[in-house]
Design goal:
The chain is α+β, with helices and mostly antiparallel strands. It has 16 helices and 12 strands.
Length: 476
């Protein structure tokens, strides 16, 4: 008895007519295993990218303590040059993805013979709503859709999303397991990765040179302001405010923040009497509350919230007054954006975090406003917040932690003179380290751009005091 025209047996026979039993040959089986292996390699490379670039300061510190661990040394070596590491990962991932596309195309051609695409194209072209393309064009579309759809689904699910989610949770484990592989790939791809890194450095320098050209326009603005306002002493404050407004949008938070070593903070385990003593000595209205170290800020304590509890003893649980809505900002955020966020968030203080997620310091609304209108003094401020001593008209002694902006303002220098050497330095000690390259000894003298820097006092960790001698202008 013959099957009915619309019976399921007839439907399945038509489908399998396109897929002959001979597709599962030795070559096809090998290609399948190769595809699975390549997908596994793609997953490993993708997971390593997330694993390495999500390691925080605590993870790196833990690696450094493992002195006898070869794997830890390999990881630290890879992280020491992140640009080459990223280039190695991208090259390896792209090579694997290209191989996956080629193998997938070959497999599609074996599983789906030409007759399948031809019949599919003829079927689509025969439909009234799709007759604007020929059967040959539709058959090509079907081939592309099957190949691209298959490869995209496999790569995104098994080569990108799943391994990256797993690596985010198990970053240290993945970093250790892939350290040897990335070291080998780094050696193999070194010439190509070197070309990529040097190319990006060239582009970055060109962009920086363009940004330096904007400095000239800033100088022109300064000259225009001087001409418009005049040179009278009474107009100096007006000129300073106008210049501050113009340069306001180019100043990063890192340039005005208070460094973590200078921040007054209290541990949430502190006794109430000791807390009042800290508040009285500091004179601040807002105090960051930490958990053992400044990287763990748990909240902000507003001193005004303690006014009704001044007579209470150590049994008072002042921790209930801590406000936990801590506002975090990155070091690179511009001050104009920060001012807007202060307004929208209704905050007066923010914790500044570095690129690794650690707490670098704090910035307040007062710091932002002072960049425009100059120093704001109140009854708690000292006569001069910048610690320095003027020896004579050419010699100044500064604390090493003094911000470069304050140093330049006091000695009358322009920041542009030091752009070629300052790098990422924000303090005077950082500038000296950029010039010298190591922690100098007490009494050493260094010269740059006509300025002499003499190390007055230094300890094992940092430069404490520096004597700056200005260029001699008597012969000019």
């Amino acid at each position: 008895m013959e099957p009915e025209p619309d019976s399921p047996d007839l439907f399945y026979s038509c489908i399998f007519a396109f897929l002959p039993l001979t597709v599962f040959t030795t070559a096809t089986t090998v290609l399948l295993f190769v595809l699975i292996f390549l997908i596994f390699c793609s997953a490993v490379i993708s997971s390593s990218e997330v694993a390495y670039f999500s390691l925080g300061p605590a993870d790196i510190k833990a690696l450094k303590t493992e002195d006898n661990e070869k794997t830890s040394k390999r990881i630290l070596s890879l992280l020491s040059n992140r640009k080459y590491l990223l280039a190695t990962i991208l090259i390896g991932n792209n090579l694997i993805n290209v191989a996956i596309i080629l193998v997938s195309e070959n497999l599609v051609n074996k599983f789906f013979p030409e007759s399948f695409f031809t019949k599919a194209g003829m079927s689509l072209a025969s439909l009234p709503v799709l007759d604007f393309f020929t059967a040959g064009t539709w058959s090509g579309f079907v081939d592309i859709i099957i190949t691209v759809g298959l490869v995209t689904f496999i790569l995104v699910l098994f080569g990108e999303v799943t391994p990256k989610v797993y690596a985010k949770i198990n970053n240290m484990s993945i970093a250790k397991k892939t350290s040897r592989l990335l070291t080998i790939l780094g050696s193999l791809f070194y010439p190509l990765s070197g070309v990529l890194v040097n190319g990006t450095d060239f582009i970055e320098k060109r962009l920086l040179s363009k940004s330096k050209n904007s400095t000239t326009s800033m100088e022109e603005f300064d000259e225009a302001i001087a001409l418009a306002v005049g040179d009278e002493k009474l107009a100096e404050e007006d000129k300073g405010i106008l210049k501050g407004i113009i340069k306001f949008g180019d100043v990063p938070v890192k340039q005005v923040m208070k460094s973590r070593v200078d921040v007054v903070a209290v541990d949430f385990r502190e006794k109430y009497i000791d807390l009042l003593r800290v508040i009285n000595d500091s004179g601040y209205s807002r105090i960051p509350v930490i958990d053992e170290e400044f990287d763990n800020v748990t909240g902000i304590l507003y001193v005004k919230d303690l006014l009704g509890h001044l007579e209470k003893g150590n049994e008072f649980e002042w921790q209930e007054l801590i406000r936990t809505n801590v506002f975090y900002v990155p070091e690179a955020k511009k001050l104009d954006d920060l001012l807007k966020e202060f307004q929208t968030q209704k905050q007066h203080m923010a914790i500044v975090v570095d690129e690794y997620g650690g707490s670098a310091g704090i910035v307040t609304l007062e710091d932002v406003l002072e960049e425009i209108i100059g120093d704001i003094k109140d009854e708690f401020d000292q006569d001069s917040e910048v610690e320095y001593r003027k020896v004579d008209h050419r010699n100044y002694v500064f604390e090493g932690k003094t911000l470069l902006n304050d140093v330049f303002r006091i000695i009358g220098a322009t920041a542009e003179k030091f752009d070629g050497i300052r790098g990422d330095a924000d303090s005077l000690a950082g500038l000296v380290l950029e010039i010298v390259g190591t922690i100098p000894k007490s009494g050493e003298v260094f010269e740059f751009s006509g300025y002499n820097f003499k190390i007055v006092t230094v300890n094992k960790k940092r430069i404490e005091q520096i004597l700056i001698t200005l260029p001699d202008t008597t012969d000019e």
